[in-house]
Design goal:
The two termini are about 25 Å apart. The strands form four sheets. The chain has a six-stranded mixed sheet with strand order 4-7-8-9-10-11, sandwiched between helices. The protein has a three-stranded antiparallel sheet with strand order 1-3-2, with no helix packed on it. The protein has a two-stranded antiparallel sheet with strand order 5-6. It is of the alpha+beta class and about 190 residues long. It is about 30% helix and about 30% strand. About 30% of the residues are buried. The radius of gyration is 16 Å and the shape is globular.
Length: about 190
């Protein structure tokens, strides 16, 4: 990620930048700083696809619980930041409380669950700050998967961050009941 600290823009300017650069992905910090999110390489793309596939299968089997989203979905967090987690999920009642216009645009809420997969170009400190931002804006459960160090950081609302060394499986706990994420392909 590249944060352009000197370039602070408002919502209208953000829309213009996004529309004029359809081949790029952007985020925005709560301070209005524009963030350019670079594309991933093949290995990260393969790993992210595997995570999304596994999660998507669980969502399809549990549609009554909520909706899942891919890395292209932009969420407008309560603090004003615009973020796109690699994988995310919103409880059904929260999703259905949004108007059609809100569902079609940048989703005006923080997901209940977020997953970030660190790619070789990602700065770990920046990703950890992003995870804390999600938690501070209402996320209940978050996973930051760091293949470079074979670690997973588990974020839970109101709890200390748990660091797990190369787990083979992660479980969705009470937030994603019955979900288990097989990490074997992530570590290979």
């Amino acid at each position: 990620m590249l944060t352009i600290n000197a370039l602070t823009i408002n919502d209208e300017q953000f829309e213009i930048v996004v529309k004029n650069n359809p081949d790029l992905n952007f985020e925005q910090t709560s301070a209005g700083e524009l963030v350019i999110v670079p594309p991933t390489g093949g290995t990260s793309g393969r790993k992210n696809f595997n995570l999304t596939k596994q999660f998507g299968n669980w969502v399809d089997e549990h549609l009554e619980l909520g909706e899942g989203f891919d890395s292209s979905t932009l969420f407008r967090l309560p603090n004003g930041a615009k973020r796109s987690p690699d994988v995310s999920w919103v409880r059904r009642d929260r999703w259905e409380s949004l108007s059609s216009k809100q569902q079609d645009g940048y989703v005006p809420l923080c997901p209940d669950f977020v997953l970030e997969l660190r790619s070789p170009t990602d700065n770990l400190d920046e990703l950890q700050a992003k995870m804390l931002e999600y938690m501070g804006n209402g996320a209940i459960l978050g996973w930051l998967i760091d293949p470079q160090n074979a670690l997973v950081y588990i974020y839970r609302q109101g709890m200390v961050i748990e660091t797990v060394d190369s787990p083979s499986t992660l479980f969705g706990e009470d937030v994603l009941p019955g979900f288990s994420l097989n990490l074997q392909r992530i570590w290979n």
